[in-house]
Amino acid sequence: MLASLSFCMTSKSSSFINQYGPWALIAGSSEGLGAAFAEELASKGLNLVLIARRENLLQKISENLQTKYGVEVIVLPLDLSSPDMFETIKAETKDLDIGLVVFNAGLGPIGLFTTHSIETHLKVINLNCVGPMSLTHHFCSEMKEKGKGGIILMSSMAGLQGSPIHAHYGATRAYTRHLAESLWYEMKKYNVHVTACVAGATETPNYLLSEPRDKGLIKPKPTKPEKVVKTAVRGLVRNKHRVIPGFANKLSVTFLLNLLSSKARVKLMGFIAMKMYGEDKMHINK
Ligand SMILES: NC(=O)c1ccc[n+]([C@@H]2O[C@H](COP(=O)([O-])OP(=O)(O)OC[C@H]3O[C@@H](n4cnc5c(N)ncnc54)[C@H](OP(=O)(O)O)[C@@H]3O)[C@@H](O)[C@H]2O)c1
């Protein structure tokens, strides 16, 4: 019985490595959701390329995962919103067989659209749209040739309709969701899985830093990063076009999409955001 269970687990992990290995690249992996992706993928036997700006955090994660799971880890400290990031990543990974890419990093200024500078908005586009688009284009083309692989693009419930107070962020999360869902269809005949992870509030350092006000039922109960990541990876393995982690999130999306008009949905999102952050709060995450 024990022997057959362990055989079953081994064959599951080797089929995971065959489809998505031997290397995975995680863009934005020094903490929170990105670090949880690193742990989950290392536990499944993938070697990792970890990218973020804070090298010290990446090094700590790298040492921990190498010791714990015996995988190889390469740390690549860089700013994913910088103009040379694509060429740098291409050059640094040219000899690696990358079978899985997770684009996790995101920037989400909170506050009225006009209170943030045009420089901030351009940075948001570079990180949230140009980043996932360029890495997906490059690695998806390679995966298509190999006839296997996977891509996970992070999106958000803020991207399901207009989202006042997170206006530009919501627009970029609609972008990644549309891109992933379309590529899911285009790529499935090449055995390349593409999944959009439409997360709700998640207990990451960035979310906690935004200090949402507690308004009872209005404040969403954040999901643990590990749960979001497990749902995303399970969805990828099942080749789902998108996943919505967390039962309450799934329920509220069903309610929002099926019972309310698009105008009412925007009004509701605006109302909730105002309660959580207030008109006066012009916070920007890192
Ligand atoms: N948290 C939530 O409530 C929530 C809800 C819905 C969707 N999401 C989505 O989930 C993703 C992650 O969200 P999060 O910020 O809360 O999670 P996180 O995974 O805790 O942190 C973001 C990661 O990205 C890295 N990063 C940020 N800007 C970067 C840049 N310019 N260059 C390189 N790396 C960068 C950060 O590291 P460094 O600072 O070291 O660079 C960090 O490792 C985003 O795409 C977001 O849209 C989050």
Helix and strand composition category: alpha/beta
> How many structurally independent domains?
1
Strand content: 5-15%
Determine the number of helices (DSSP H or I, runs of at least 4 residues).
10
Average pLDDT rating: 92
| Large-scale geometry | globular
Largest sheet: 7 strands, parallel
Strand order of the largest sheet: 3-2-1-4-5-6-7
Supply Rg.
19 Å
CATH class descriptor: Alpha Beta
CATH homology superfamily: NAD(P)-binding Rossmann-like Domain
- In N-to-C order, the SSE pattern is HEHEHEHEHEHEHHEHH
CATH A-level architecture = 3-Layer(aba) Sandwich
Please, could you describe this protein's structure?
With 286 residues, this protein is an alpha/beta fold. The chain has a single domain (19-277), classed as 3-Layer(aba) Sandwich (Rossmann fold), CATH 3.40.50.720. It contains ten helices and seven strands. The chain has helices spanning 2-20, 32-43, 55-69, 85-92, 118-146, 167-187, 205-209, 225-237, 247-259, 262-277; strands spanning 23-27, 47-52, 73-77, 98-103, 149-156, 192-199, 242-243. It has a seven-stranded parallel sheet, sandwiched between helices. Helix 2 packs parallel to helix 3. The radius of gyration is 19 Å and the shape is globular. The termini are far apart. The relative contact order is 0.13. The mean pLDDT is 92. The site of NADP nicotinamide-adenine-dinucleotide phosphate has 31 residues, from helix 2, strand 5 and helix 7.
